[in-house]
Every structure is written in C-alpha cells, then in structure tokens.
Amino acid sequence: MKKTILALAMLGAFAGAANAQSSVTVYGSIDAGLRSLTNTNAAGDSTLTMNSSGTYRTNRLGFKGVEDLGGGLNAHFKLESGFNNGTGALVGDLFARTAMVGIGGDWGTLDLGRQYSVTFITNAGFEPFFNSFWTGISLAVPQGGVVRLNNDIQYTRKFGPATIRAEYALGEVAGRTRAGSTMALGADYVAGAFNFGASYMTRKNAADTADQKNWSAGGAYTSGPLRIAVGYAKDDRDPGFLTASALTIKDVWIGGTYKVAPAIMLGAALYRNSTDTAGVDGHKNLLILNGTYALSKRTNFYADVDFSRYGGTYNNPAFRQPAGHDRQRGISAGIAHVF
Q1: 181 closest CA partner among 159, 207, 156
Q2: Burial level of 3, CB count in 10 A (0-12/13-18/19+)?
Q3: 96-142: pLDDT as tens digits
Q4: What is the CATH number of the domain that holds 13?
Q5: Is the separation of the CB atoms in 29 and 336 below 8 Å?
Q6: In b/e form, how buried is each residue of 126-156, taking b as 16+ CB within 10 angstroms?
Q7: Could you give the CA distance from residue 47 to residue 69 in angstroms, rounded to a whole number?
Q8: What's this model's pTM, rounded to 2 decimal places?
Q9: Cα torsion angle, 28, 66, 187, 154, sign
Q10: What's the CA gap between 55 and 133, in Å, rounded?
C-alpha cells in the first residue's frame, strides 16, 4: 500500500512539473451513490451497498500526455487507475485500466500496452447509455468478456467519416506464438444522424487448443434531443475455452435517451442475453429506466431502476443468475463528477 501511495505521489509531482513544458493532463471521475438489490442470496435477502467502482460512471484517476515530434508526428501516453469509491481501494493493479504509449500521424495511430479492446471501443458507438451503467448492472454491448487487453498492439486510422481499428494482443506463451493471443478488427461509419459499427474478435486459449469467436454489429440514430441505439452480438466458445462444454452467447438490445430539458435526460433500454451450453438454453431479460440531472458540465445526479428476469438454465460467466431466484430488482442513486 505504501508503494502504491508513493507511486501516485510521484506521478502527481511529475504531471505538475511537466505541465509547464508539455501537454500532460491529470484527469478522472468519481461516482458515489447507493444501490439496493433484491434476491442477492438463496434466502431472498436484499442488500444496500455503496462499495463499487462506479455505478453511472466508472471511477478512475489518469495521466495522459502528448508531445509534438514535428513533421505531423506525435508521441502520446496514458496511465489510468480504477478505485472503489466506498473504501478508496484500488480496483486491480495500479494501472489496471490503461497503461499505454504510442505514436501517431496522418497515417493513423499505433498504441502498445494494456488498453481498451477494439471490440469495446467500436461497440461503444451503439450502446444505449454511452456505456454508462455497464459495470455491474447492464449487459452493455457484449465484448466477449474482453474490455481491455494486456500486451496489446493496436492501430487506428480515420478515413473521413469512417474509422478502422485493428489489434493483436500477444499471448506470451513460450514456444507457441498463437497461444493465448487475441486478434480483432473493428470499423464505424458516421453518416449525418446515423452511426453504424461492427467488430470481429478471435482468441486462443493458453494451450492453443480452443478458440473464442465474437462478432457484433449495430447502429445509433440521433435527432435533436433523441438518441436511439440497437445492436446484436454473438459469442462462440469451443469446449475447453473457460467452460468444459461449448458455449454460445447471443445478445440483442434496443434503447435510447431523450433530453427533456437542458439539464434533464431520461433513458430506457431493453437487453436480452441468451446462452446455449451443450444444448441447454437459458436467458436473461433486463430493463433499465434511468434519469440524470446535470448540475454543471462536469457534475450530475443520477438514478436508475432495473429489472432482471431469468429463464431456463442461464450460464453466462459474466452475469450469473441469483441462486434459487428468477428475478431481481435494483435501485441506484448517486452523484458523479468528472475532472
């Protein structure tokens, strides 16, 4: 713990000193609130909690910088930590959210390190809540369990209204180049009020004996205060990839937001997540209703009510069914600040 505090203090001092010479920024967000959830154990008890890594926004503290190298080139970096607002503890390693350095120019950007996956970045364009509420509540836009990747080499290039992304994450298994590796492609296209996107990812297990294949596609439409997003995703895992049997996960979602006043936004979304394990089906239906009130451009109150309904034998490694219950209700309220 002392080493962690010392490291953060040194980074803060460095950022302050470097800010006078180059473009180095300290940034982050903190989200604190209460969440009530029913049927959290076999007895059907409810819980009231505050401890989380953020409900509406994910808590983070980050350092990022850009250096102009001349000739249209730049070097850039990002270091980002996550933390629990209830206890102040780190979530994961010191820079578990992002630890990346790269170079960019007219030809695109090339980034190396731990970073958000191509699938996550691409699919955020058609997530109903702009990826809010996705930690622990919504099914979000599925990423096949891959929000971030270690040892990742990622390339991004814009072509007018289109953006393409490609990545290769090393598995670092001795004697096996492909074992444990991940490859992905993603693209999105903005045409007026419409935004379309699609991604494809394939992963190898550490023994190079089983594969995971994930693809998704969707779009969003924005007109004045209204935004609507829809999408579909499918994830196929061979026997031996996390589960003993073959696993297929399918998702479909629709939702949107409406700004009823300059400071007030309302939203709703419906997600359906279905699983097939060795021919045994299960599903989860999730409805989210939410509202936000902006005190400023950086601070807002939020609230949500969410309802989950389970059926069949539900077997999603990321979203488990509560023991002995086929439904849950959650209520959340809090304040989020971005700096």
Answers
A1: 207
A2: exposed
A3: 999 999 999 999 999 999 999 999 999 989 999 877 776 667 665 66
A4: 2.40.160.10
A5: yes
A6: bbbbebbbbbebbbbbbbbbbbbbeebbbbb
A7: 53
A8: 0.88
A9: negative
A10: 6
Q: How many domains does the chain contain in total? A: 1
Q: Is 199 helix (H, G, I), strand (E, B) or coil?
A: strand
- Residues of the chain with pLDDT below 50 are 1-3, 5-6, 8-10, 13-21
What type of residue is 273? N
Task: Extract the tokens encoding 129.
Answer: 């809540």
The secondary element (H helix, E strand) that includes residue 118 is helix 118-123
C-beta separation of 119 from 146 below 8 A? yes
Q: Which distant-in-sequence residues (6+ apart) come within 8 Å of 285 by Cβ? A: 270, 271, 272, 308, 309, 311
DSSP letters for 205-252? -TTSS-EEEEEEEEEEEEETTEEEEEEEEEEEE-TTSSSSS-EEEEEE
Q: What is the span of the domain harbouring residue 43?
A: 2-338
> Which residues on adjacent β-strands are paired with residue 187?
164, 198
* Distance (Å, whole) CA 46 – CA 37: 5
Contact call for residues 55 and 69 (beta carbons, < 8 A): no
